[in-house]
Amino acid sequence: MTFREELASIKPLLESIGPYNEFPEEYNSKDAIEALLTSKVLVIGAGGLGCEILKNLALTGFKDIHVIDMDTIDISNLNRQFLFRTGDVGKSKAQVAAKFVEERIGDKQLKITPYFGKIQDKDLEYYKQFSVVICGLDSVEARRWINATLVSISESNDIIPMIDGGTEGLRGQSRVILPTISSCYECSLDLISPRTTYPVCTIANTPRLPEHCIEWASVIKWGQVFPNQKFDADNPEDVEWMYTAALSRANEFNIEGVTKSLTLGVVKNIIPAIASTNAVIAASCCNEAFKLITNSNPILDNYMTYSGDDSIFTFTFELAKKNTCSVCGVTGISIIAQNWWTLETFIEEISEKKDIQVKQPSLTTSSNYLYLRNPPHLEEITRPNLNKKLSNLINPGEEIIVTDPNLPMSLKLIVSFEGPELEPI
Ligand SMILES: [Zn+2]
Residue 1: what pLDDT? Predict the structure, then answer.
């Protein structure tokens, strides 16, 4: 199939024609309007980008809009998340945003359906109902999850395009992902610079820096004490708990330097939010949704970067699909391990790789458990493997399956060995 033919198979593209495309005379604007009126659009995130996206979609003429957000409104959101007022602090972002736009537009045909919860709460059937999904998220994990979900739906069903917007200060980007056809989010994971991370095993066993103690409190202890609760860096009680936990850890290992401001810096990963950048990126995302649904113009192919910090610059390029992509590719990721690496070293190494980025990995092969984090009795059984040499646990070329609670899919790693048998001194 040609790219154009593939595009034509996308729900709900009418035909691969448009008034500003190759075959303007064949464009049927009635069908386009019908598609606009009947398409279901899902917006993920009702924060800085989400408020803009919901407003734009409603004003563009979409009538059936759904929005998911697990967060509640914080006073610090009010400077840019313009659908919220002081009296809304503490309420669900999705619910307040949906109600505000519905009431402000005042169109009886417009229905915005909010869901106050996690994207992971919904199953495949839920996601299959949408014509397009627009993400206004600030989390890599959530994007990886929805991307993998949409790719798996698109493998057996109609293709559901994913439009992803992101901003960081005065910079931003928007992209269109046609799952299984174009490059997916996971294909370009290595473009994202992961925030400074520390090896999980160091955090768990041999902390040396104050940051290790804070990460321990954040990555390990928090989940044990509050298994079903997300840490909220805007909640003073959560921050106080994290600081106290990190401090007691630091005292235990005689580490100095854990302060409340360092705790905030490490866990919050503070990024300034600029309202105008959100507006620019949200506008681009909504334009793409409009073009996809009405097929009026060629869509973004497939990545646009915007920079407003050094004058203004914008650039569009096509990210390539990756053969080794864990979500849409066909082969696993190749890793060259040193012969002397223990399983623990291996886990530390892969956790830091940009195209893998896992925080709590469990590793298996087709025949063996290498290391499992859960359930606890299997963790105990597999823990001794951490100190064994990987080259004694698997054969060269053998595939290791990595799972992580934050990812809906597993990663395939194909491991080969080189180098000395003993750790070089
Ligand atoms: Zn991919």
Answer: 47
Distance from Cα 185 to the centre of ligand 1, integer Å: 6
Structure token digits, residue 110: 């417009």
**Each residue's pLDDT tens digit, 254-302:** 999 999 888 988 887 656 789 999 999 999 999 999 999 998 888 999 9
DSSP conformation class of 218: I
- Top mean pLDDT of 106-110, 138-142, 199-203 is at 106-110
Q: Do residues 105 and 175 share a domain?
A: yes
* Total count of domains within the chain: 3
**104-130 in b/e burial notation, b at 16+ Cβ within 10 A?**
eeeeeebebebbbeebeebeeeebeeb
CATH number for the domain spanning 361: value is 3.10.290.20
Domain limits for position 70: 3-190+273-317
Cα-to-centroid distance, 167 and ligand 1 (Å):
22
| pTM exceeds 0.70, yes or no | yes
Question: What is the whole-number distance in angstroms between the Cα of residue 20 and the centre of ligand 1?
Answer: 30
Contact 165, 268 (CB under 8 A): no
Residues tagged active-site: 201
Q: How far is the CA of 329 from the centre of ligand 1 (A)?
A: 6
Question: Is residue 322 a part of any domain in this protein?
Answer: no
| pLDDT at 202 (0 to 100) | 78
108/176 same-domain check: yes
Residue 243's CATH number: 1.10.10.520
